UniProtKB/TrEMBL annotation:
Keywords in alphabetical order: 4Fe-4S, Chaperone, Cytoplasm, Heme, Iron, Iron-sulfur, Metal-binding, S-adenosyl-L-methionine
InterPro entries membership: Aldolase_TIM (IPR013785), Coproporphyrinogen-III_oxidase (IPR034505), Elp3/MiaA/NifB-like_rSAM (IPR006638), HemN_C (IPR010723), HemW-like (IPR004559), rSAM (IPR007197), rSAM_sf (IPR058240)
Keyword Cytoplasm in annotation: yes
Compartments, record wording: Cytoplasm
GO molecular function terms listed in the Swiss-Prot or TrEMBL record: 4 iron, 4 sulfur cluster binding; coproporphyrinogen oxidase activity; metal ion binding
Lineage: Bacteria, Pseudomonadati, Pseudomonadota, Alphaproteobacteria, Acetobacterales
Source organism of this protein record: Commensalibacter intestini
Example of a GO cellular component annotation carried by this entry: cytoplasm
Annotated protein name in UniProt: Heme chaperone HemW
Membrane-spanning residues: none
Pfam families xref list: HemN_C, Radical_SAM
């Protein structure tokens, strides 16, 4: 089966990774490094250099989104963001209503820079608030207070066209009533988008060590299910619908950049440890940059880029990745799109007897044209994916 390049005609996203943070949160497994002195000028120059090479090697398709992630990208100079945005938009045609997102932490130091980031070209802010409970903020290792979070959110809504923020729930000791109250407060503060993540224990994190030592616990499956049900019911009452496992938005306010990932479309990744998926000559490649910031910088300075992986993906590789991404969406995966993108028949890639068994158990919904998870299936997504793949 020949792979369709429809995604190229739709456009491409751009992810820019800024690896530095002021502190490492105990739940975080992202490629981030604590640094009080950041070599701003060197990293700005290297990012522009790597971006220029990356974008000159791909087809001239519309740039649909730019996402500054981290780490804490609001620690970069706004002038660096401006250079990167200008470089990207000069090398590729720009899609109408391009979305340019800046992740930021709600500290007073960064709030002063929000206007400068907006002037640089960012039109959407995503704030890492994580909780509206002071005790929980401390337990999560956050550097800001509740009042700082609300102040930052208020300011961001005055500056940016669109604003979202993150909360972590299913925390140790959190009751359903407590989460319901916190969520309602969050919804009273938001405009049209929230990211709501159930706390998970990720390998290599401080929480993982504490969990092994029995110092922290997580809610059981029954409470986790109850918390998810509360989340989906209350957000729906406020007009925000679940469109992905952890994301809720009013119609049209979904994160376009993150939909690029979940719809398994093309995106470029630059910066330390950044991943990408890029179609060249009808072959989809997985790309990855050197992870360590020091090695990344040295490599870019010596050879212009720090690409460490460029691997052509097989149809089975693509099928596995598209399932992993697409089943996170409440709308699921269209069979036709799956087959065109992956270059393989759906029934050849999927364990069909297991699929039917999971439908019977009400973990999946399937009608020959579309496969999606049910609410209880989304709570068991990893196990479902493992069962579905041949």
């Amino acid at each position: 089966m020949k792979t369709n390049i429809e995604n190229q005609q739709r456009g491409i996203g751009l992810y820019i990774h800024w690896p530095f943070c002021l502190a490492k949160c105990p739940y975080c497994d992202f490629n981030s490094y604590v640094s009080q002195q950041i070599p701003q000028e060197s990293y700005a120059k290297a990012l522009v250099q790597e971006l220029t090479i990356a974008l000159t090697e791909i087809p001239k398709v519309p740039l649909t989104s730019i996402f500054f992630g981290g780490g804490t990208p609001s620690l970069m100079l706004p002038s660096t963001a401006e250079k990167l945005i200008d470089t990207a938009t000069s090398l590729l045609p720009v899609a109408e209503n391009i979305e340019i997102t800046l992740e930021a932490n709600p500290t007073s130091v960064e709030n002063q820079k929000l206007k400068d980031f907006y002037r640089a070209g960012a039109n959407r802010a995503s704030l890492g608030i994580q909780s509206l409970n002071p005790t929980a903020l401390k337990a999560l290792g956050r550097e800001h207070s509740v009042s700082q979070a609300i102040e930052a959110l208020t300011l961001a809504k005055q500056i940016f066209d669109r604003v979202s923020f993150d909360l972590i729930y299913a925390r140790e000791g959190q009751t359903a009533k407590e989460w319901e109250s916190e969520l309602q407060e969050a919804l009273s503060l938001t405009n049209d988008h929230l990211s709501l993540y159930q706390l998970t224990i990720e390998p290599g994190t401080i929480f993982a060590k504490q969990y092994r030592q029995g110092k922290i616990t997580l809610p059981n499956d029954q409470l986790s299910t109850e918390l998810l049900t509360i989340t989906e019911n209350i957000t729906s009452q406020y007009g925000l619908q679940a469109y992905e496992v952890s994301n809720y938005a009013k119609p049209g306010a979904e994160s376009r950049h993150n939909l690029t990932y979940w719809r398994y479309q093309d995106y470029i990744g630059i910066g330390p440890g950044a991943h990408g998926r890029v179609t060249l000559d009808q072959t989809l490649y997985a790309t990855e940059r050197h992870k360590n910031p020091v090695k990344w910088l040295e490599t870019v300075q010596s050879q212009g880029h720090a690409l460490s992986v460029k691997e052509a993906l097989t149809p089975i590789d693509k099928a596995q990745e598209m399932l992993l991404m697409g089943l996170r969406l409440t709308k699921g995966i269209q069979t036709r799109v799956f087959e065109e993108r992956c270059g393989i028949n759906f029934s050849e890639a999927i364990n069909m007897p297991m699929l039917m068994a999971l439908v019977e158990e009400d973990f999946l919904s399937w009608n020959q044209h579309c496969l999606k998870t049910t609410p209880q299936g989304r709570l068991r997504l990893n196990a479902i994916l493992e069962a579905l793949l041949k």
